[in-house]
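#structure-requests
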Amino acid sequence: MTLELEQLESAIRALDAQRALLGDAATEIALAPLRARRDALLATASVADPVAVAAAAVSGAAPAPEQLLKQVTVLFLDVVGSTALSQHLDPEDIHQIMDGLLAAFGAEGSHEDDPQRAVHAGLALLAEGRAQGEAVRRRFGHAGFDVRVGIHTGSVLLGGGVDEGGTIRGSTVNIAARMEQSAPAGGLRISHDTYLHVRGGFDVQPQPQPLLQVKGHAAPMVGRDLELAQLRATLDAAAHTRQVRAITVVADAGLGKSRLMHEFQAALELDARAFWLLLGRADPARQLQPYGLLRDLLAWRLQIADSDSAETAKAKLVDGLAPRLAEDGSMQARLIGQLIG
């Protein structure tokens, strides 16, 4: 049994070392049966010989987490007005209401919408901060409690530090902290790198330059000339034949799909031909929403916000879509509106 455990641990470590190449999803699928067999052997051994289990653990059955370079979206939150409040509140009360937060979206498992999820979380935290500020005002009679949030997307080094698997290092963390420190009270500031991943999905306000200078430079896209040329050629074929073309871009999270699409969209802005650009996001959270992608496409193009009333959304949809439909376009637009909710 000890030999099999050692072989299993060796196989698990070797496979996990290929995570960056295989991707999280494929790696976890391959690791699952190995881990299950290892756990079953350890459970059996713990009954038969607890000392052997302890020896197996000492020999490396539970190795420390290895270092892993991953692309994540880092969120920083801090409390505004803590110094002023600390002069009026007891230490126990300060401990109850004061808190900071660092979160890394994509650290444990990468998702295509990690930047979007981080921004949604940041907005929710701001709303909770406003609610907490009102609660502090009512309970303690002091105003000024608020929070601010900063977000940046980039590469970090995970694991291998004092906190083992909980260690996160890299300039991405520092830049996210700078975003938070420069954000206004009750506001959320994202870096340009995060904006490239989420643009079109949120209302953003460009900041005057130079608002905040962060050491670094814009790197050109490398190694994707063939893919970019294929996208452009497919667009040319669709424009020439007036027939539908489809391209699926497949790669693990963090390998440059968003950057490729950004470069393609930049090329479209210089294209003299007349066309509509419709952007939609296949959000995993909306997998069970019928026609969710169509809804996203039209909402983005016609500037229909989630905060719009039903009447406002209906007016934007009908006014923007009806002129491009066949006879009785107004009725068709309303039917589409019913279909997509």
